[in-house]
Write a structure and sequence with these properties.
With about 140 residues, this protein is α+β, with helices and mostly antiparallel strands. It has helices spanning about 25-30, 35-40, 130-135; strands spanning about 5-10, 15-20, 45, 55-60, 65-75, 75-85, 90-100, 100-110. It has three helices and eight strands, in the order ββααββββββα. α1 (about 25-30) packs across α2.
Length: about 140
């Protein structure tokens, strides 16, 4: 038996908490072992659970998500940022807390700010503004 709550937070974030009837070490193993995490996320997961490590999810349906592990506090917290090739980047934070009935697992996913890099703005070089300035000169 488990209890759960769901909350949508301001600032493009979703948070969900659930109390699991398992000790924090067992839950931690499910978060840091790719096979076990893949069962939860319904896909194939490759994860290197260390700061700067990689994470990739190939779901049963839908696009691949890939990213970087940002923070690890063994047995208590793991955080990663990820995205799909055509999707928006998000930060996933997973916190564990030992409670009398097992482990309180809280997952928060937040939309990250993003920019497109590597493209030259149209107002530089031979874009429309450059043509207008040349014609006015």
């Amino acid at each position: 038996m488990h209890e759960e709550s769901f909350q949508e937070s301001a600032g493009a974030a979703v948070e969900r908490s659930v109390t699991l009837p398992a000790d924090p070490d067992a839950v931690w193993e499910h978060l840091t072992d790719g096979t076990l995490l893949g069962e939860w996320l319904e896909g194939t997961v490759e994860i290197s659970p260390r700061r700067g490590g990689s994470i990739a999810l190939t779901p049963e349906t839908g696009p691949v998500s890939w990213g970087t592990v940002e923070e690890v506090v063994p047995g208590r917290r793991i955080q990663w940022s990820w995205r799909t090739d055509d999707g928006l980047p998000t930060m996933v934070e997973v916190d564990l807390e030992s409670v009398e009935t097992g482990t309180l697992l809280t997952v928060r996913e937040t939309l990250l700010p993003w920019t497109i890099t590597g493209l030259q703005p149209q107002w530089l070089g031979n874009g429309p503004l450059e043509a207008l300035l040349s014609a006015a000169a």
